[in-house]
Please model this.
Amino acid sequence: MATDPRANPGGAVPPGLPAPDAEAAAHSQRLRAAISDAIAAAGGAITFQRFMELALHAPGLGYYSAGSRKLGGAGDFVTAPELSPLFARTLAGPCRTALGAVGAGANVLEVGAGSGALAAGLLAELAAADALPEEYRILEISAELRERQRQTLQACDPALAARVRWVDDLPPSDFHGVVLANELLDAMPVHRFVVTENGLRESYVAIDEAGEGFVWQTGEPSTSALVERVEAIEAAIGGPLPIGYTSEINLAAEDWVRALGPRLEAALVLLIDYGFGRGEYYHPQRHMGTLMCHYRHHAHGDPLVLVGLQDITAHVDFTAIAEAADGAGLTVAGYTTQAHFLLGSGLAQLAQAAGGDDPAEQLRVANEVKRLTLPHEMGELFKVMGLTRGIDLQLPGFALNDMRQRL
Model:
């Protein structure tokens, strides 16, 4: 096992980031101690995939398992449902189409429901169209977010909130309806790899010499799946990756899709996340990967600091998701940018109606639409992938710019 020459001690807060208060710092220290114990038990290093899993999901301590506020202005980042109610209202269109195609007994399952804003908006719009699902299920592993979701839904409409049920796992079998996952796959723990003069290496995390933080190390790949995937990446880009090239592989997201497929009988799955097809994701110029951290509305690239206090994400390889879907008996029904999907699904018409005759309201709505659709905002980086099983859908959201050929 070799120390990465770019490794930095993981105890200090990077320059430019706000320092945590005493309570948050103490919480982070407890998680650092737990991860250090896991590293010691593993013989001195753990894969970055395991580190990310613990940093985000360690019981009672991980970023998503503890009680800190994560979404919105008081949190660390903002997602599209919090940005504008038009996001949920627009998604209600394709959901209504899919629920109608499935027929009686159709449900909605939202996996990772954030603040509950998407659920509340969808239910309100579907109720207005007399197209409510039999049940709206939410699969959420964070107790803090479950409670926030309950509060959001109850505040919006207690009658609609009564239609929501929280579940602890994917449906056992024969699910009929719509599965939604907005910014879910990007937060699943990823393996990190680096190409060296001695061949492919995986990134591991060890304890720094002072025992106060963490450092990168490189070692042999922990699974042959990484070697096979890098070979597929090099085939996709037409040549070997350069020495020093570093990136990520999200085997967990692929496993999730493979687990979901057999549980669906007649369903539409909508995956909304930031990412690319494989050739673009692993372009030689993107030589440092896509790993990103979000802390109090600051984005930076060091996942070894502020453990338990910051989100850690990586972009999605949508080619890998499409391959996993195909292997799970799902059909890729569409793949496009968020901008094209929302505009094709009626965003402009909904925005015009929402703006009304009030110039101030029209300006507010126009700004929301810009943030959802402009290339330098969410419009191009975020993609929408539709997967189907047991139903044949032609959704307008994919008609404006079907990008499946880029997968």
